[in-house]
């Protein structure tokens, strides 16, 4: 971090000596400019914004004290050292009152001046670095807030007024529109049955990172949001009017996403494209339409462009509404609403079966898969219960069998939700947040605010639930994930550290060594057998 200095004095020999005698470069300055009076200095400051100013008190046109007053009017904090040949206490006191950081008497003691300049330079650099850290943290918080807003809007969790939010200094959210691409893991039910929790967490994490990097070369402004296990939305931001709908570009981006996943994670995904830009208020509807269309299409490794047909079948439309009501009732723990929606769904499916039994079975299989994934998102279905469910479905071939399984599934999850304590719900949300944000720099404040409780209450609940502090748990999760990535990929130690939330390799290595007893490189060398695909 290099600094700029400005020397202001009407005595040309003094400014030349100041330029030559002090070791400016070793102190941290790569630019040292001069000027002869306060007015010229003020013009230079407004244009170039120097970090340090050495200024004489006695000068023509605008003296040093007047210059200090004008600097104050600019509203910025400048580091100013006053040079004076007058050992007059009133001059010095006035200069300090106007914001001078120090003063040096003429004739100048250059050793003393070097010490003062060095001290101020260190203070300026420390302040700059702290500001940069705070800005980075603020940007991270803003990005998390924006992604959370998009996530909640997609899932129709909020009726937020976009006028309340700013994405950056230039654009209100209402001036933006989005391309929506849904990415869905093929063979989800098979994969879910054969992966344990650790493998699922690792694959979900890796897949999101691949999606996040896949379009980076196109310099797009986009977010990758995991809407549920095995499903992500890639939301690409545009300014209204600047980017017309281009379905060829959308398909190109989709191919890039699909190929990146297959190449890096060795998994297949299908993608659904909403064919036109959607406003913030249209995202939830766009997401549901693409999701329904993609899940009812039997093909794998496909890229499907949504085609909205006129005169949508009324029974199908009613069925989708009832499915959404069931999911909503499940989340809200509303037993009456659940029973009513399920009864109406039964009647609707009977009406559809009169047209096509095969169509009903296809819809029911989707409904079960849909509910299983939703239940996993809200943690009301254990791995054992899920395995038992898949075993039953393998033996369930009739519509009646499928309906009975759905009914049992719903009531099992409803009872789990009703019997769960509020504190358990808070901690489930905390665990989900941690799993989805391991690569992000966040602390207790951010996660407590996300859940909606105080930091102290969060810390208490967390220790009770997990038997360790939040920081201990977070660090352990990051190191466990790093261990898996080390043996499954050839990414560098620095890259892996960043993937699990450590920006500096040295700090990542130190934490890894503390938890495992070896460095990341040593761990990778000792673990030659990768986790099976």
Order of strands side by side in the largest beta sheet?
2-1-3-4-5
Biggest β-sheet description: 5 strands, parallel
The H-level CATH homologous superfamily of one domain, spelled out, is Reverse transcriptase/Diguanylate cyclase domain
Number of helices: 22
Helical content class: 55-70%
User: Span from first to last CA?
Assistant: 46 Å
Mean pLDDT value: 81
Structural class: alpha/beta
Strand content: 5-15%
CATH architecture of one domain: 2-Layer Sandwich
* Low-pLDDT segments: 160-171, 529-533
CATH topology term of one domain: Alpha-Beta Plaits
CATH class of one domain: Alpha Beta
Describe the protein.
The chain has 533 residues and is α/β, with parallel strands linked by helices. Helices cover 60% and strands 12% of the residues. The protein has a five-stranded parallel sheet, sandwiched between helices. Strands 7-8-6-9-10 form a five-stranded mixed sheet, sandwiched between helices. Strand 7 and strand 8 (231-239) form a beta hairpin. The chain is elongated, with a radius of gyration of 31 Å.
Topology:
Blueprint: E1 3-8, H1 12-21, H2 24-27, E2 29-35, H3 38-48, E3 52-56, H4 64-73, E4 79-84, H5 89-97, E5 102-105, H6 110-154, E6 176-185, H7 188-194, H8 197-214, E7 222-228, E8 231-239, H9 247-265, E9 269-273, H10 283-295, E10 303-305, H11 314-332, H12 335-353, H13 357-377, H14 383-395, H15 399-419, H16 422-436, H17 444-451, H18 455-466, H19 470-488, H20 493-499, H21 505-516, H22 520-526
Parallel strand pairs: 1-2, 1-3, 3-4, 4-5, 9-10
Antiparallel strand pairs: 6-8, 6-9, 7-8
